[in-house]
């Protein structure tokens, strides 16, 4: 029997092949596909390479500067930061939508509480 995770990865790979936009519910599984794994690995190695190159350059000059090493790392992390921010915005919008739906379903409870009536009911019936 195929695991749920493997089934989601196969679905993600089909989406990549069809060049369709990936649903947000599959976020986090990108590295499980061949293409996603390669892209992620390239981003990571770009950061590592830039830091190591900066350290080598500093060693040659006998000039050690942590801020330049940090800058080398940050300048190659921009794509990862943008991907993380995009995901965070999507999460925030999804959370707001869920909260808004929940609040509208439970409005009677809040209105009763505002009027001073006590309500033990905590479900949206």
Could you walk me through the main structural features you see in this protein, from its secondary elements to its overall organization?
The chain is mainly alpha-helical and about 120 residues long. It has a domain of about 40 residues. About 70% of the residues lie in helices and about 0% in strands. About 0% of the residues are buried. The model has no long low-confidence stretch (mean pLDDT about 75).
Question: What is the element layout, followed by pairings?
Answer:
Layout: H1 4-17, H2 34-61, H3 66-75, H4 78-105, H5 107-114
Region (Disordered): 1-26
Biased composition (Basic and acidic residues): 1-19
Order of helices and strands: HHHHH
The rounded distance between the terminal residues' Cα atoms is 38 Å
Percent helix range: over 70%
Question: Number of helix segments?
Answer: 5
**Rg calculated over all Cα atoms:** 24 Å
Strand content: under 5%
Q: What's this, in brief?
A:
The chain has 125 residues and is mainly α. It contains five helices and no strands. It has a domain at 77-116.
For the structure shown, list the relevant keywords:
125 residues, mainly alpha, 5 helices, flat, 70% helix
């Amino acid at each position: 029997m195929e695991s749920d995770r493997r089934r989601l990865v196969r679905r993600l790979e089909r989406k990549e092949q069809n060049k369709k936009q990936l649903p947000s519910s599959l976020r986090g599984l990108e590295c499980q596909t061949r293409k996603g794994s390669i892209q992620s690995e390239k981003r990571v190695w770009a950061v590592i390479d830039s830091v190591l190159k900066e350290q080598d350059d500093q060693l040659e000059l006998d000039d050690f500067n942590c801020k330049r090493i940090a800058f080398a790392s940050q300048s190659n992390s921009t794509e990862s930061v943008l991907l993380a921010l995009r995901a965070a915005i999507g999460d925030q919008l999804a959370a707001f939508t869920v909260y808004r739906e929940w609040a509208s379903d439970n409005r009677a409870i809040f209105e009763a509480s505002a009027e001073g009536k006590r309500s033990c009911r905590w479900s949206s019936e």
